[in-house]
Structures are given as structure tokens and as C-alpha cells.
Amino acid sequence: MSVFQSTHPLVKHKVSLLRDADISVKAFRELTNEIGALLTMEATQDFALTEHTISCWSGDISVPTLKDKQPTLVPILRAGLGMLDGALKVLPCAKISVVGLARNEQTLAPDTYYENIVSDIATRTAIIIDPMLATGGTAAATISMLKESGCQHIKTIFLVAAPEGIEVIQKAHPDVSLYIGAVDEKLNDQGYILPGLGDAGDKIFGTL
Ligand SMILES: O=P(O)(O)OC[C@H]1O[C@H](OP(=O)(O)OP(=O)(O)O)[C@H](O)[C@@H]1O
Ligand SMILES: O=c1cc[nH]c(=O)[nH]1
Ligand SMILES: [Mg+2]
């Protein structure tokens, strides 16, 4: 598995802005989408190309085009929806598979309440999008769900991740790549990332 922590100055700057305790819902939403787009660029940089002949104004030429089918984006409800528009700016033709998982606040175990994965998932790369990787339970369960549906290539994008969650994914799913805006220090006793962003879903949906 590869763990890629972005070194892009724009990603670092925008994640820093997200951490402001007084940030507005509007600013949080905008930045979440902007970082989502930048991390989608990073996660697609190894996509394979093939040569293809087209009629150009100057005659027939060979051009590089994407070799494989469009990927499927997999936003994890709710908070993953906050990155979807940004990811679609980079991948406007992507299919979308939606899964719904919520952490039980006492046990921190994920509860799955929705699953709608594209039927031809076996032939597409899946790119999971979620702002937060905390204990890793939600992402690990989502990856298992995709694999059970036949998915063979999985990438994940997170704005902020805890070392604990990265380790869980590394152990359970060593074949999956992680693209992360910032790796933070640790989890607190309630399973929140420190310093983190707080509850990303609440900040995106304005349900604080
Ligand atoms: O790594 P974990 O410990 O599993 O935690 C991460 C999950 O927690 C948050 O979702 P939450 O359960 O709050 O649901 P929401 O998106 O509906 O707010 C977050 O968006 C991740 O999906
Ligand atoms: O820090 C955290 C952990 C889980 N979910 C969040 O939204 N924030
Ligand atoms: Mg939440």
C-alpha cells in the first residue's frame, strides 16, 4: 500500500484554513471541495494512457488518452458528499457509487445504512472520498464492501487522517492507496482527530 501525504502548498494552506474554529459553513464547504479537487489530481496522476489516432485540423495525429474506463467516485455519506463536487471538477465523467456509514458514538464502530455501487465495479478503479480517516473503521468497512462487490483497484482520499486510522487500513487492506491532505497527531478518547477539524459532517451540513 502507498500512503501519499500531499506536499502541495495550496493543499497545506487550505487545510490550515479549515482548522479555524470560527470558520463559516460556506467557507468550510468551499475549501472541502477545493481540497477534494486537488487531492483527486494527486490520486489520478498514475492513470495509464494509450495512444489513439484522431483527425486534427493539421491532419491525422496520435494523441494520448486514458486507457481504462472512467473510475467510480465513492463518497461516504454524509461528509464525503462535501468533496464530491470538487472531485467531479477533475473527473466530470466519473460514475458515482454511494455508501452510507455512520460511527456509533459509543463504540466508534461503523453502522452501514446505504449501499449503491455501480454494477460494473469490477472493471473500474474506485476512489473513496471522505474528509476524515479517524479510527479507520468506516474506511475499512467501505473497502470491504467494494471488494465484496468485485472491485479490484481502490484508492482513497482524505482531507485529514490520524496515524491510528492509516495503520488500520495498512493492515486490513495493504493493496489500497491513501491520498491525504494532512496526517495529524493522534485520536482523542472520543475518537476525534487532534488537532483535526472537529466533526466534518456537522460543519459541511451546518448541523453543529
Ligand atoms: O475512521 P472512523 O473512526 O470510522 O471515522 C471517520 C468517519 O467519521 C465521520 O463520519 P460520521 O460517522 O461522523 O458520519 P457523517 O458523515 O454522517 O457525519 C467521517 O466523515 C468518516 O466517515
Ligand atoms: O475527528 C473526526 C473523527 C471522525 N469524524 C469527524 O468528523 N471528525
Ligand atoms: Mg459526523
TrEMBL record:
Residues 7-207 form the Phosphoribosyltransferase domain. It catalyses: UMP + diphosphate = 5-phospho-alpha-D-ribose 1-diphosphate + uracil. Allosterically activated by GTP. Its EC number is 2.4.2.9. Pathway: Pyrimidine metabolism; UMP biosynthesis via salvage pathway; UMP from uracil: step 1/1. Binds 1 Mg(2+) ion per subunit. The magnesium is bound as Mg-PRPP. GO terms for biological process: UMP salvage; uracil salvage. Keywords: Allosteric enzyme, Glycosyltransferase, GTP-binding, Magnesium, Nucleotide-binding, Transferase. Its cofactor is Mg(2+). Gene3D superfamilies: 3.40.50.2020. 5-phospho-alpha-D-ribose 1-diphosphate binds at residues 78, 103, 130-138, 199. One of its GO terms (molecular function) is GTP binding. It is an enzyme of class 2 (transferase). It comes from the Bacteria. Uracil binds at residues 193, 198-200. Coiled coil: none annotated. One of its GO terms (cellular component) is cytoplasm. InterPro entries: PRTase-like, PRTase_dom, Upp_B, UPRT, UPRTase/APRTase. Belongs to the UPRTase family. PANTHER family: ADENINE PHOSPHORIBOSYLTRANSFERASE, URACIL PHOSPHORIBOSYLTRANSFERASE, CHLOROPLASTIC. Catalyzes the conversion of uracil and 5-phospho-alpha-D-ribose 1-diphosphate (PRPP) to UMP and diphosphate. This is Uracil phosphoribosyltransferase. It comes from Litorilituus sediminis. The gene is upp.
